[in-house]
Amino acid sequence: MRVRPGRVALHLALASYCLTSVGAFVWCVMVSLKTNPEFFSTSPWSPPVSPQFDNYAQAWNTAQISRFFANSLYTTVTSVVLGLLISVMAAYVLARVDFPGRGLLRMVFLSGLMMPGFLVIVPLYFLLRDLGLLGTLNGLVLVYVASHVPFSVFILHSFFASLPKELEEAAYVDGASPSRTFFRIILPQAMPAVTGVALLNTLTSWNEFFFALVFLTDEAAQTIPVGILGLQVNAQYAANWVQLFAGLVITMLPVLVLFAVAQDRIARGLSTGALKG
Amino acid sequence: MERQKRRLVVPFLLPAFAAYAFFMLYPAFSTFYVALTDWNGVSAPDFVGLGNLTELAADETFRSTIGNTVTFVVIGAMILFPGALFFAYVTQKLRFGKVYRFFILAPVVLSVTTAALLWKFLLNPNFGVVGVELLGQPSTAMLMVVLATVWHGIGIWMLLFAAAFERVPVELREAATLDGASAFQVFRHVVWPLIWDVTRTLLILWMIQGLQTFAFIIAMTGGGPLRSTEVIGTYLYGVAFTEGRFGYAATIAVVLFAAILTLTLSVNRLTKRESEQY
């Protein structure tokens, strides 16, 4: 085996790029374990003198990271579950039942794929205000559910359309009602597609920023992406940077764990999702 | 059976349609109406017809935000596409290729604000890792925002290109190599023509996303310094929720939407080639 200089250069280039993402994480963790004076006086790359794990406790309790967490969790879980439930039913009917106006409805649902957030933001703000939902997590959940519908219906519709007809026919012969057939036979078959869409919608909701920034006017009801932005402003006033970094690390962890566990799935899901334009 | 199944139509469709129509379709259509009014969100909207549009055409700030947005999209594409193509191509059969891919993709899982703040701190001249002011200078601020955005998202684009490469038949590449073509020639004359369709789609996708760029700007620069990173999205946000000029903001939204549609259609037409047959 000869050593080829080209190969070595390639590995060096790739490895040094990968170091930027590793370095960013490591740097974040190191800062989060320093004291504030230490943070200002030592080099960014020097390790903490004595690790301050207390920063994490403080970030979790006093800096409200725990609250942002709970808010993000509630918003994400509720919107993904509700959104999938209604999208799965709609996609099934659009794919498998022949009724007048089906083609038009498909078009209407699909057109939602081309509706960027900025196009709806102004009227939506006032709609939520008039409903008394501005600044509440439930208002945001409703918006997320609605914005998940087009994409979820689009993906699930193509899945249902590819299922063999025999499944439904066999159930019909056995005397099962259509809704029973759907929930007992079709839905379990669709689980792989449903899980894929669920993963994607989870990532989308968890990281959604634009709607959350505009609609969550009350600090008590903020999700992580908006919350840490406010935290950064507070850190600037209080010069409490280490706590902010501890907060950043805390918010990174669950997603990183999820990513490590489900890397292949997410990678596949992301490529489906990114191609939705 | 078909008749029985029809009974599902209304109960199964209604919830999804109601949610989508009420919170997406209806607001989207109202935006077009609001764009024709002067509205502060408190008193009744004042109908001004195309007045907002004339004002927008003469709006100097808006003009510079268009320039900044285009800069973002163009510089972003110039870094993102060669980068993603390179990463996807060289990690295909390389030892540790999967490991490299994992780390290139890793930043994607950070929320946009986390990634943006990370970069903001890394670039802080006082306690970051670069001793010079890069975000605080109008000449370099936009480039930094682009770099952060690309760093965050490049993994996805790499995976999409990797998926495209996998669809190129191995025999074709082997045949070219046997004929004495260099690795680069194989890429240029065999692989590249075959993935052109995917590249087109991704270019359009990047344009659609790039024209709406928002989160990284808000978290890293807030549109500064001296509005040098103010883009259409952040301008719209400020006009609506800081200045309270909702009619004018809706007009910006409609114009941006029209621009995205027009660009998508024309780029789609311009880049259409005879599709290569495998």
From TrEMBL, chain A:
InterPro entries: MetI-like, MetI-like_sf. It is found in: Cell membrane. The keyword Transport applies. It is a multi-pass membrane protein. Residues 69-262 form the ABC transmembrane type-1 domain. The keyword Membrane applies. Its main location: membrane. Keywords: Cell membrane, Membrane, Transmembrane, Transmembrane helix, Transport. It comes from the Bacteria. The chain crosses the membrane at residues 73-95, 107-128, 140-160, 181-200, 241-262. Belongs to the binding-protein-dependent transport system permease family. This is Carbohydrate ABC transporter permease. It comes from Micromonospora cathayae.
Automatic annotation (TrEMBL), chain B:
Residues 66-267 form the ABC transmembrane type-1 domain. It is a multi-pass membrane protein. Keywords: Cell membrane, Membrane, Transmembrane, Transmembrane helix, Transport. Its main location: membrane. It is found in: Cell membrane. PROSITE patterns: ABC_TM1. The keyword Iron does not apply. The chain crosses the membrane at residues 12-36, 70-90, 102-122, 142-165, 203-226, 246-267. Belongs to the binding-protein-dependent transport system permease family. PANTHER family: ABC TRANSPORTER PERMEASE PROTEIN, DIACETYLCHITOBIOSE UPTAKE SYSTEM PERMEASE PROTEIN NGCF. This is Sugar ABC transporter permease. The lineage of its organism: Bacteria, Bacillati, Actinomycetota, Actinomycetes, Micromonosporales.
